[in-house]
Amino acid sequence: MAHTLYYTPGSGNSFKPALVARQTGRPLRMRRVDVLAGETRGAAFLAVNPCGQVPYLVTDGGVGLGESNAIAWFLAEGSQLMPATALARAQAVQWMIFEQTALEPNISPARFFTHILPGERDRRAADIARWREAGHAGLAHLERHLGSHPFVAGGAYSVADIAVYGYTHLAGEGGFDLQAYPAVRGWMQRVAAHQGYADVGTLLAPSAGTAEAPAPAAEPA
Ligand SMILES: N[C@@H](CCC(=O)N[C@@H](CS)C(=O)NCC(=O)O)C(=O)O
Is the CB of 35 under 6 A from ligand 1? Predict the structure, then answer.
């Protein structure tokens, strides 16, 4: 039996586990949840994930797992995407936490209120300016690192690259100009050239899952 991934189209967070599954050849049952229609806050989905967020994985054993980077890590276990040494795995965790604290919380909402809900752009202008400033600080830190490292952790392509790439490659849609980050742009090209890569539109196409999100019995871990 396959694990079930609840996802929403266009989401950099949902993209991460979907790409890990594709590049490791792990089958996933995809279940689409419409965030804009409020389905993440509806009773049917809350019965699956009480936190009301996607991505969310229900394992083939019926255990629920939240947080994109935790799901990506779980799916990468035992594959070539898992760094080989203890130090490289710790570095991968370091950068995946950095992604969740310095990149995603800034790039994702800036993109949401400019690209996905452009009607909200003016009302959220002050927030967007703040997110962009903080997001640029994160991108500058990533640029310094990638200036002397081909990949995020351990010298080889890994689950950490997928996690950090998730929103970095969508930053342009949030109004981030990436011209000042040549090392980041070179790294994004290396990630996108990797075997088995597919873009967010392909991995999370509405046809990747059913419109309805049935609720298998999940035990939040
Ligand atoms: N830290 C979480 C963030 C998840 C998140 O923000 N999910 C958004 C979609 S990308 C969501 O479910 N929003 C709907 C809601 O909060 O109701 C992760 O990395 O998975």
Answer: yes
Q: What is the CATH number of domain 86-192?
A: 1.20.1050.10
- Rounded CA separation 101/71 (Å): 17
Report how far apart, in Å, the C-alpha atoms of 72 and of each of 110, 118, 155 are.
Answer: 23, 30, 19
Q: Name the closest-CA residue to atom 6, ligand 1.
A: 53
Q: How far is the CA of 172 from the centre of ligand 1 (A)?
A: 19
Residues sharing a CB contact under 8 Å with residue 120, sequence separation 6 or more, in sequence order = 113
Which of the following CATH numbers is that of domain 3-80+199-220: 3.40.30.10, 3.10.450.330, 3.30.43.10, 3.40.50.720?
A: 3.40.30.10
User: Among candidates 145, 159, 141, which has minimal Cα distance to 24?
Assistant: 159
What residue spans define the domains of the chain?
A: 3-80+199-220, 86-192
> What is the mean pLDDT, run by run of 10 residues, along the chain of 221 residues?
95 98 96 96 97 98 98 98 97 98 98 94 96 98 98 97 98 97 98 97 82 43 41
How far is CA 192 from its chain centroid? 15
